[in-house]
Amino acid sequence: MQSVDRLLDDRTPGVEHEESTANVLSYTTGLGLAVLLTVASFVVAQTNLLWPPGIPVGLIVLAFAQIGVHLVFFLHLGSGPDHTNNILALAFGVLIVFLVIVGSIWIIANLNWNMMEMPH
Amino acid sequence: MTIATVDFVPTELARGRGGGGPAPTRTVVAYGFWIFLLSDFVLFSGLFAAYAVLSDNTAGGPTGAELFNLRSVFIETMCLLFSSYACGLGALSAERRRLGHFYISAVFTFGLGAAFLCIEISEFAGMVSKGDGPSRSAFLSAFFTLVGTHGAHVTAGLIWFIYMVAQVAAKGFRPHVLRRHLCFSLFWHALDIVWVGVFTLVYLMGAR
Predict the structure, then answer these.
(1) What pLDDT sits at residue B109?
(2) Among B1-5, B132-136, B139-143, which stretch is predicted with the lowest mean pLDDT?
(3) Which parts of chain A sit beneath pLDDT 50?
């Protein structure tokens, strides 16, 4: 009777079907945390709850926290051996994104500084 | 000459790091799609960098604080977040072969995604009709390119999702259909991650 299953299933032979680690609870936890962090971002941006010069830093921290929540609870990026390659690729991606964004801001800030009118 | 046939791979060895034989197709497909998503993040990083560099160059035109309506941005954010959540629940129902639950979550995934897009389009249309289109200033060029590219991704995702639901309806939960749906879920969650960057850098910091 398992012939139909065999036909439809192109799993690698010998490899057991793995139950996904995802469940309703993990998605709901992720949703709750993400809503909390989003509301916190909007509140921080529109009030003076934080020391005003520190607000951009606070917003960036909240954004990174939320991205972490999305990666763990929605994309299910874990620490298991199946995820080794995913994590390595992510680390490389983060490096490139960081170089492009921070590098651009740094270089252009320098250029702007050099373009300022000098007193004669 | 004899060809060795492997008819038993110990499951505890068949995991990661290349040891113990091939990984399950699902793992390999998800990895390949993850690489694509990371390349998409690199694309967005270029647009984020352009926006960060140009956001002060308003050329006498309106600034972000004058243009952005944070109330509608908050509604947009919630639409996309709950759409992502519904998509996750849809993936679970697909894994458990529950067609009814899958269709219900599909309605919410699509509906909330479409609501996000409608709010964004009406925001863009309002700005362009007041003469604050992409040609007004370098700030607005960067704004429309960044937010518009994200919107284009959402549009493509919605079209892909219609196609995905049609495949489930026509073929049922076959393994290759489930793998395609897994890729769609990854794409949809990744768009939400990009949106976290957009609402933080563009809207919340720009409206100050």
Answers:
(1) 97
(2) B1-5
(3) 1-7, 12-16
Task: Compute the residue count for chain B.
Answer: 208
Using an 8 Å CB-CB cutoff, list chain B residues near A31. 81-82, 85
Taking contacts as CB-CB distances below 8 angstroms, the residues of chain A near B75 are none
Smallest CA–CA distance, residue B28 to chain A, in Å, is 10
Quick one: A63 and A94 in the same domain? Answer: no
Closest Cβ–Cβ partner in B6, B85, B196 for A66: B196
A67 and A40 together in one domain: yes
Cβ contacts of A55 within 8 Å, gap of 6 or more: A44, A45, B208
Quote the number of domains for chain A: 2
* Assigned domain for A119 exists: yes
User: What is the residue range of A43's domain?
Assistant: 20-76
Contact assignment for B49 to A92 by CB distance below 8 Å:
no
Tokens 């270029």 belong to residue:
B46
Same domain for A25 and A50?
A: yes
Domain contains A105: yes
Residue A14 lies in a domain: no
Whole-prediction pTM: 0.86
Give, for B45, the enclosing helix (H) or strand (E). Answer: helix B25-54
b/e burial code for range B63-80 (CB count within 10 A of at least 16 → b): ebeebbebeebbebbbbb
Is position A115 within any domain? Answer: yes
Q: Which of residues 89-108 of A touch B (CB under 8 A)?
A: 89-90, 92-93, 96-97, 100-101, 103-105, 108
State whether A14 and B11 contact (CB < 8 Å).
Answer: yes
Which superfamily does B67-206 belong to?
A: Cytochrome c oxidase, subunit III, four-helix bundle (1.20.120.80)
- Which residues have a Cβ under 8 Å from the Cβ of A112 and sit 6 or more positions away? none
B65 touches A: beta carbon within 8 Å: no
Could you tell me if B113 and B48 are in contact, meaning their C-beta atoms sit under 8 angstroms apart? no
Nearest CA in chain B to A48: B208
B181-200 confidence digits (pLDDT tens): 999 999 999 999 999 999 99
Same domain, A33 and A62: yes
